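Protein record

Derive tokens from sequence
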Amino acid sequence: MSKLLLNLRMVLPDEADDVRAMLDANRIDFYETRPSRWGISYGGIWVAHDGDIAKAKSLMAQYQTERRTRVRAERDAALRDGSAETFATVLRRDPVRVVFTVLAILALLGVIALVPLLLARH
């Protein structure tokens, strides 16, 4: 029976490519399901054979540890050299989007605060 190895929700394309390459390199049969049209299912990478599940999970754990270390090092280097994306860089690059986002957040907070005020009147 097939077993889900990686849910593709919020997975970057390069990470999914790395996992596919890892499975191919280790001769683990897998197949992929695509995301649904309406976003209910995000798709996934499935191990095809029960006998490969333990090996695939072990390889996946090792890959995730290595990726986490590499990505954190890249982020730290970007912060040191000033190329990392921060709130300030997003504000400078796209101020209109930031202002509208902040206004939307404030409007939602206002709606949430309005409920207890209306309930307290009765």
